[in-house]
Design goal:
The structure holds three protein chains of three kinds.
Chain A: H1 2-19, H2 22-28, H3 36-60, H4 80-88, H5 92-122, H6 128-139, H7 144-157, H8 163-187, H9 192-199, H10 204-233, H11 236-240, H12 250-254, H13 267-287, H14 289-296
Chain B: H1 2-19, E1 32-38, H2 43-54, E2 59-65, H3 69-81, E3 89-93, H4 97-102, E4 106-107, H5 125-130, E5 132-133, E6 136-137, E7 140-141, E8 148-152, H6 153-156, H7 165-175, E9 178-180, H8 187-199, E10 205-207, E11 213-215, H9 219-232, H10 247-255, E12 261-266, H11 270-277, H12 279-282, E13 285-288, E14 306-311, H13 317-327, H14 330-340, H15 353-358, H16 362-371, H17 381-392, H18 401-416
Parallel strand pairs in B: 1-2, 1-3, 9-12
Antiparallel strand pairs in B: 3-14, 4-14, 5-6, 7-14, 8-12, 8-13, 10-11
Helix pairs in contact in B: 8-9, 8-17, 9-18, 17-18
Chain C: H1 26-65, E1 68-69, E2 79-80, H2 84-90, H3 93-126, H4 131-143, H5 146-157, H6 173-201, H7 205-213, H8 218-229, H9 231-246, H10 250-255, H11 265-275, H12 279-303, H13 308-312
Antiparallel strand pairs in C: 1-2
Helix pairs in contact in C: 1-12, 3-6, 3-9, 4-6, 5-6, 6-9, 7-8, 9-12, 11-12
Classes of the chains: A mainly alpha, B alpha+beta, C mainly alpha.
Chain lengths: 303, 422, 315
């Protein structure tokens, strides 16, 4: 047990090192990287990346009177927009939907994709390359091409405007992502341990569960983050396959926010909602930056 | 392991289904009437009044829809196409009657079923026409709306109030004022076009004796309407960023401290808004009838508002009809008018003193609503509307009205047969 | 399957040769191979079934629907019409406007992303003191919901809620395209730059040294050594982003809703399918979009000899 755990950490770290492109470059360019030009470049990039977020954060803190003042720093910061948002009842339910649907999809996708990725990385079976190519094709598939049929099928089967009605299409588009990421991670796992286990009489499945699965957890976790961000981001399915707060997620809900009267624009509430759904993701990105980078480029270094 | 995972997955998928099931459930034996309607300030008081009056016969519950009519329709159409039986009552924008009726999503009212808004004598002509389709009454007019010409009295001075578009353009140039009129690619553009076309003496769509809808748009009058739209899109009367201006943008621009504009065409909601935001400024607000295209021809202003429709798949039609009769009663109409700035559909409230107090411009609106021009009542109204927006937006791109006319007529003919890419 | 960065320590020796099924012999091996095949199929089946059920079947159904007049608002008029829907679309100026708009947005944003992504990758490759902050900063756009970034940019450039004052970039076709492209570039350059960074890291450093010895300038080294050696990574990054950009929907929906002729193909499809519930016509648009995507992929794979396998791992 202990050895497995230690091995797991080690392999996890190795897999990360293998994907992380920082480690080797760090040594090589220590001198070059300290120049002022590179620093200015880096600062410019940070400003570029963060400015729109800063603007919408500022809008979310402005009252109705200052929303059009064109200033980055609100003169009279107020939490009114957040209060309105939570009082209106148009946001809490979509937020619950977003969290619930994304989490369920993430769990399902990672479990199902783990099986497939393990098979791809470790086993020889017919149709393997077809599965990989197919998954890639689906990742590039235009969702608009299937919303019509899905709408028609969902409305006649009762899946319309329900959680499963969104989880299914989310899952479909999350699976390729998870399979590719996981397969790349699984390939990095050393074989000695698995083979040793098999020599000791374990079946391939036991070898998978007892030896490989613990080693694979860092990769699984990374895939889960990426899949979660993917689901969290969806707009088209949510806006097409829901019609009420029963299942509508936050991105779609923002498009339907109501203001105090029929013709008034709910800019402040949209900005507040944007901040609420963005902050957790930014924290996640900050905490797991290494893993996310490794996951996004998983397999990309080969060739 | 696989099986267990499968079961877990199934459980995870089904749990939320169970959790969010249930549509028109009973509240302790009282039939619930689910009313799908856009968010309006007057909703709560009106519903409370009716629920109190019903005394347990039914309970109305509002299901809120998005702010703008396009969003409302989109949500409803999807639910209705999915034959959702939780929709008992629908707050339909006046332009949806034809579409919803033809698709079989709402059921018509029987003669005598409606106590307040069931006859032509009770209801103003514009709202009445918008509720009829194919010889039957599908909508119960709930409230009405019409657009007026708003101006700042202090700035207009002793100039005459413009009564025609030519006079309006001249006054604007004289004042150095823009004309705040919506130019965004939205339903409001269709509202404007329809009013101009009707005021010029033709219609977008007419229905022949066999009930077939056809594109009318007589060339002469349509060209006059297009000429006005072209001028609205040109300097000096076109406001900056006109192509994205909606009703609320215009309200804000007109209400601003140093507003560049002294003239605006808009719905009456602008008045309660300014009374709340700046009562002093409100005293300078004046309203006049929607301008005429030509001196001799009556102006036919836009018609807005809600009709109530009964969902086809409702499980308790009787309760829904009872709710309609309460919601359309004079007391509720008065509440809607005084709190929402939206005039009643009832002839008897045309000069109502209580409403007059909060809407001083009521008589102008009432007169306008008798003459108002409903937008085409056709099952493909949405396509017609999208076609108009596609061709006429932005106003500044109308160079040659003749060319725009040909393009529009061609696209509308296809749209009316739901055969246009839009 | 050569890995440029050999996983250090344990087990790396065998990592390459596993798939062939080993080199042992006899009955044991055959049984094992059979068991392995069976397990492999079993493990892959759930993923394959879900993916097929929610894509292959609907796309087939869309193809079928596209041959009908099928409008939920006029149910009594539904009928088989053959290829009429396609004829209607292909003769419509609105359709070709959308094709143009989608193409402009795709080409310009992917080109900008390539240049910016490369610059970002170079900065991250070199700038050491701020590397961590840069990495976090560029992951922010990646993590933000597309719709939210679309709102952020739309609000930031709007005449009322924005910071640029009276101009209205979203009030014309060129301006609309510019804002949409800017948003797309902001949102997706990080992904592009990470892919390129991975490619950059895979370029053999000794080539650089050799070029340096030969007296090549930094620019020459970039264009003569670095870029040609990461061609594979660049092409795959371009393909991924081109296919992704071509199906753009969220940003346009939020920012212009298709006004000023900025409508895209996905937007037209959505309008027909979901707003107008005209499933026949909308399905035909869907199928045409699908064909465009296949065409783009085909051009990259055949025309530029992009080998997806090299980059996504399965060599």
């Amino acid at each position: 047990m202990t050895t497995t755990a230690i091995g797991g950490e080690q392999v996890g770290a190795d897999a990360q090192a293998a994907h992380s492109t920082w480690a080797p470059t760090r040594r090589r360019h220590r001198e070059a990287g300290r120049g002022p030009a590179w620093t200015i470049g880096a600062l410019a990039i940070m400003a570029y990346a963060l400015f729109p977020v800063a603007w919408i954060a500022s809008l979310s803190l402005k009252g109705e009177g200052d929303i059009a003042d064109g200033k980055l720093i609100p003169t009279k910061p107020t939490l009114d927009n957040y209060r309105t948002l939570f009082d209106s009842g148009e946001f809490v339910r979509p937020l619950i939907n977003s969290i619930g649907i994304s989490l369920i999809t993430t769990v399902l996708a990672v479990v199902i994709a783990s099986f497939a990725a393990y098979a791809i990385a470790r086993l020889d079976f017919p149709g393997k390359s077809l599965l990989l190519t197919g998954a890639l094709a689906i990742a590039m598939f235009p969702p608009v091409s299937i919303i019509g049929p899905l709408f028609n099928i969902w409305r006649s089967t009762g899946l319309y405007d329900t959680w499963p009605g969104l989880i299914l299409p989310f899952l479909t588009f999350a699976l390729p992502l998870a399979i590719w990421t996981l397969a790349a991670f699984f390939r990095e796992i050393p074989f000695d341990l698995e083979q040793a286990a098999q020599v000791d009489g374990a079946t391939p499945f036991q070898a998978f569960r007892k030896v490989i699965l613990p080693l694979a957890l860092p990769g699984v976790f990374t895939s889960a983050i990426i899949v979660f961000i993917f689901c969290w981001n969806d707009f088209l399915f949510s806006i097409s396959l829901t019609s009420t707060d029963e299942a509508r997620t936050v991105p779609a809900a923002t498009a339907f926010f109501t203001a105090s009267s029929n013709f008034i624009n709910p800019t402040g509430q949209i900005a507040a909602a944007a901040i609420i759904v963005t902050v957790p993701i930014i924290i996640m990105v900050l905490v797991f930056q290494r893993r996310i980078v490794a996951g996004l480029t998983a397999g990309a270094v080969k060739g | 392991m696989r099986r267990r995972t499968g079961l877990l997955a199934a459980a995870l998928m089904v749990a939320p289904l169970a959790a969010c099931g249930g549509g028109s459930d009973d509240a302790g034996g009282t039939p619930v009437v689910n009313w799908y309607i856009g968010n309006e300030g007057w909703l709560d008081p009106v519903i409370e009044a009716c629920n109190a009056e019903a005394g347990g016969a039914y309970e109305i519950r509002a299901e809120s829809l998005p702010t703008n009519p396009d969003g409302q329709r989109e949500q409803l159409v999807r639910r209705l196409a999915a034959e959702d039986d939780s929709i008992d009552l629908i707050g339909m924008d006046v332009v949806w009657t034809g579409e919803f009726a033809q698709a079989g999503w709402i059921s018509p009212f029987e003669p005598g079923e409606l106590t307040n808004v069931g006859t032509e004598e009770q209801v103003l002509a514009g709202p009445w026409a918008s509720a009829q389709y194919d010889g039957q009454q599908y909508g119960a007019p709930l409230n009405s709306n019409t657009r007026l010409l708003w101006y700042r009295e202090s700035r207009l001075g002793d100039r005459p109030v413009p009564a025609t578009w030519d006079e309006l353009f001249a006054t604007a140039e004289d004042l150095g004022s823009t004309i705040q009129e919506t130019g965004a690619r939205a339903e409001s553009l269709v509202v404007l076009f329809n009013a101009l076309v009707e005021s010029a003496g033709t219609s977008i769509v007419t229905v022949d004796d066999d009930g077939e809808a056809q594109v009318a748009l007589e060339e002469g009058p349509t060209l006059k309407a297009l000429e006005i739209m072209k001028r609205l899109g040109e300097a000096p009367v076109a406001p900056a960023g006109q192509g994205n201006l909606g009703e609320d943008d215009n309200r804000l621009a007109f209400q601003a401290e140093d507003a560049a504009s002294s003239l605006m065409i808009n719905w009456p909601f602008v008045y309660p808004s300014v009374v709340e935001a700046d009562p002093e400024l409100a005293k300078d607000y004046r309203a006049a009838p929607f301008p005429a295209v030509e001196p001799g021809l009556p102006a036919r202003a836009a018609l807005g508002g809600y009709n109530l429709g009964i969902g086809r798949y409702t499980q308790d039609r009787e309760a829904a009809v009872a709710a309609v009769n309460c919601l359309t009663a004079p007391e509720q109409q008065r509440t809607i008018a005084t709190t929402g700035g939206q005039p009643s559909v009832l002839r008897e409230l045309g000069e109502d003193p209580a409403i007059l107090e909060s809407l001083p411009f009521l008589p102008i609106m009432t007169a306008q609503l008798e003459e108002a021009a409903p937008r085409p009542v056709t099952p493909n109204y949405n396509d017609v509307s999208l076609a108009v927006r596609t061709v006429l937006h932005p106003l500044s791109d109308i160079d040659d009205p003749q060319q725009t006319y040909d393009e529009l007529k061609d696209l509308l003919e296809r749209a009316l047969d739901s055969q246009a890419v839009l | 399957m050569a890995t440029t960065q050999t996983p250090p320590a344990t087990g790396s020796v065998k990592a390459g040769g596993k798939h062939s099924g080993g080199s042992g012999g006899g009955r044991f091996q055959t049984d094992r191979a059979k068991a392995e095949r069976k397990l492999g199929l079993k493990l892959a089946a759930p993923a394959a079934i879900v993916m097929l059920a929610v894509t292959a079947y609907p796309i087939g159904y869309a193809l079928y629907l596209s041959l009908f007049r099928y409008d939920l608002r006029t149910p009594d008029q539904n009928a088989f019409v053959g290829f009429d829907n396609y004829a209607l679309i292909l003769t419509s100026s609105v359709w070709w406007q959308a094709v143009l708009s989608t193409t402009v947005i795709t080409v310009v944003s992917v080109a900008l992303e390539l240049v910016l992504g490369l610059a970002l990758a170079l900065v991250m490759h070199r700038a050491l003191s701020l590397r961590r902050s840069v990495r976090v900063a560029i992951l922010v756009p990646y993590g933000i919901i597309t719709v939210i970034s679309a709102y952020a940019f739309a609000f930031a450039v709007a005449p009322d809620t924005g910071f640029i004052g009276d101009g209205d970039p979203l009030g014309s076709r060129l301006g609309g395209w510019a804002v949409i492209i800017l948003t797309e570039v902001w949102k997706t350059t990080p992904f592009m730059s990470l892919l390129l960074l991975a490619g950059l890291a895979s370029v053999d450093e000794s080539l650089q040294e050799a070029a340096k010895v030969d007296g090549a300038t930094a620019t020459q080294r970039l264009f003569r050594v670095t870029l040609p050696n990461m061609k594979g990574a660049i092409l795959v990054a371009l393909l991924f982003r081109a296919l992704d950009a071509f199906r753009i929907f969220d940003t346009v929906y939020v920012q212009t809703a298709g006004a000023f002729e900025t409508q895209t193909i996905s937007g037209l499809g959505y309008n027909a399918l979901i707003t107008r519930v005209n499933l026949g016509l909308g399905s035909a648009i869907s199928i045409l979009l699908f064909l465009f995507i296949i065409l783009i992929a085909f051009i990259f794979v055949k025309g530029f000899k992009t080998n997806l396998g090299t980059v996504k791992g399965e060599g």
